[in-house]
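Note to self: keep these together.
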Amino acid sequence: MSLVGLLFLIGGLCSAATNMVGGMLSDKFGRRKLLLIVTAIGILAYVGLALLVGFSVNLWLISAAYITSRGILGTINPTVGAIIADVAPRNKLTESYALVRIGGNIGFAVAPALGGYMMGIISYGWLLGFSAIACAGTALLVLLFLKESYTGNKEAVNLRSTLAVAKDRSFLAFCIICLLLFASMAQLGSTLSVFAVDRLAFSTSQYGFLLTTNGIIVVLTQFPAAWLTAKFPIHKGLMAGALLYGFGYLTLGWVNHFNWAVLSIVLVTFGEVIFSPLSSAVVARASPEEKRGRYMGFFGLSSTVGFSFAPLIGGVLLDVFPRQPIFIWGTIGLSGGIAALGFYYWGARWQTQRLPDRQ
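Structure:
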């Protein structure tokens, strides 16, 4: 598991770098054009992975292809985040990001259950083939329905200007705190999968149901939660989300029955529905229009680095504590508590009860 975590980390670091590149390119050339190019390349990447896995080629070659595909697709997230910031009303950013997350989580709710079922009748290679089809569907929707929200920037847009975002100290501190929480958030799709199936003897379908539960709760509660939290100081909402994440993961240390695992996932999901749209709204409000993609890319860097370290951290914990789950999930849950403390001091230091809108 430590080796698996290391491979995910390398792929994530490549994706983190391309997050910044994607944000930079979307500021330079526009959002829609970049989405079309990246999704087209993504189709080829998934087809290539499907063939490599289907023919059971060398594992290291599959790993290299996976890392490459993650890097290519890493340019999408900051572009999508910038589009939402471009078109959403300034006083409805949290709710707007919540609506987009509902769409994403409908897919997230369906995919694990469908994948768990399909694994009983088809191979991993065919599953990756279906991913290529989904990517093609995305490209078609962008081509037919998405209008350009930002045509590009005539000023110099390069890596130096992207890294210059770090001069915004409030934003930099926010990204560092979020990185810690992202390393905890990502355990849902990495450490939990091995822990649930290998240590608790749940079936793959049961693990898929846990992720489906997460997705369904997000779909049902994301918008009302975003509407409610938008009425409170931003840093307090971020603190609440981090604490729920930490406590939810901590309870997994005592789980010995599937129903209790579902309850833990419910707690983690409530942390997600509070934190995720708020954090995206912070980035949108902090970023000037002409630098929006670069701000989103820098935030994507912290997100991807955190998510990339998660499998490595989780893999090491699984190897070191094979029969002591409280140490595994207690360590993971602790990061949520530390992040909550960080958001408290971030709010006190930079007076972020209401971030000013940047036009």
